[in-house]
């Protein structure tokens, strides 16, 4: 898979101070380690012995991790810290390992049509009496019967699909425990801040007391992951009934997160600047399946001054 995405690998280098230029979106781990980490999204099939559910959309995680590393280097983070950060970014969707595409889509399409909150923070706003961390149980208690009447059998596997969204932190922690032996085999040292970064989008409150740099790395992950997702043709077709992708809508969403306080001006400007320079062209084209119009590319060039093309 890594080969098919035409990755450019970067060797380690010393920190050259803030705002270093990055010639191409980097992967700071070896090809073998990156492939091994992405295989951790594969999950034993609960109903078919010996079968594996392949991790959904691994290229999304890889593209996101490349962009995150580029932004972190641009903002002056040291190379070894960025390497650890990129490992967390490669695994940022690990709480959804085992995602059953048809079942997951059916449950959450039904919920969205009913106007039911699909994220923990949104759930707590609508249902403030729900105990923190028990959003999955509250959802099932309230809607299990309606889902079964809709024709969805709410067995333990279906309940896990609910947990993948409303109980993401709990499922991520469980999955991280399960893969610790593999991380040790890969000689990866896992630090608590890496998990916090992965949780920022759904659980910003968990980073309130974290060091500024941890929150900033969480912001970079949110910004890059959402930029990729808004341009990800496969996800658009699978989940969002989206007929087209728009760079303007993607950056409009990042600006809305900035207004809400989820993203800082510094992070948004860094993403806009590197995108305008052309650094992310190949990644965004890959996310869209290679289809980007000249008008859309012109929009990217106008995001901020300066044009620096990524060498082939």
Please explain how this structure is put together:
Strands 1-2 form a two-stranded antiparallel sheet. The radius of gyration is 19 Å and the shape is globular. Helix content is 56%, strand content 1%. The two termini are 19 Å apart. It contains 15 helices and 2 strands. The protein is an all-alpha fold and 312 residues long.
Fold blueprint:
Blueprint: H1 31-39, E1 43-44, E2 52-53, H2 58-74, H3 79-90, H4 101-113, H5 120-126, H6 135-149, H7 156-166, H8 168-185, H9 192-199, H10 212-230, H11 233-238, H12 247-259, H13 265-276, H14 281-287, H15 294-301
Antiparallel strand pairs: 1-2
Helix pairs in contact: 2-3, 2-10, 3-9, 6-7, 7-8, 9-10, 10-12
């Amino acid at each position: 898979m890594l080969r098919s995405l035409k990755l450019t690998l970067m060797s380690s280098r010393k920190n050259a101070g803030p705002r270093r230029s990055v010639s191409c979106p980097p992967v700071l781990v070896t090809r073998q380690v990156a492939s091994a980490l992405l295989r951790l999204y594969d999950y034993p099939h609960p109903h078919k012995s010996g079968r594996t559910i392949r991790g959904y959309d691994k290229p999304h995680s890889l593209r996101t991790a490349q962009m995150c590393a580029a932004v972190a280097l641009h903002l002056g983070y040291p190379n070894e810290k960025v390497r650890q950060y990129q490992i967390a970014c490669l695994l940022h969707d690990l709480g959804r390992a085992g995602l059953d595409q048809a079942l997951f889509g059916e449950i959450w399409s039904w919920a969205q049509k009913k106007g039911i909150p699909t994220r923990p923070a949104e759930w707590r706003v609508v249902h403030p009496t729900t105990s923190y961390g028990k959003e999955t149980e509250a959802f099932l208690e309230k809607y299990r019967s309606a889902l079964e009447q809709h024709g969805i059998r709410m067995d333990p596997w279906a309940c896990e699909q609910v947990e993948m969204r409303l109980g993401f932190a709990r499922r991520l922690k469980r999955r991280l425990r399960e893969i610790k032996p593999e991380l040790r085999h890969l000689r990866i040292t896992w630090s608590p801040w890496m998990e916090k970064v992965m949780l920022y989008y759904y659980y910003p409150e968990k980073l309130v007391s974290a060091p500024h740099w941890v929150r900033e790395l969480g912001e970079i992950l949110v910004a890059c992951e959402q930029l990729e997702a808004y341009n990800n043709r496969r996800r658009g077709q699978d989940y969002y009934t989206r007929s087209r992708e728009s760079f303007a809508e993607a950056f409009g969403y990042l600006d809305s997160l900035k207004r809400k306080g989820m993203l800082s001006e510094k992070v948004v400007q860094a993403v806009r600047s590197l995108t305008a320079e052309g650094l992310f062209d190949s990644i965004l084209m890959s996310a869209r399946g290679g289809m980007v119009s000249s008008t859309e590319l012109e929009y990217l060039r106008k995001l901020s001054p300066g044009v620096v093309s990524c060498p082939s």
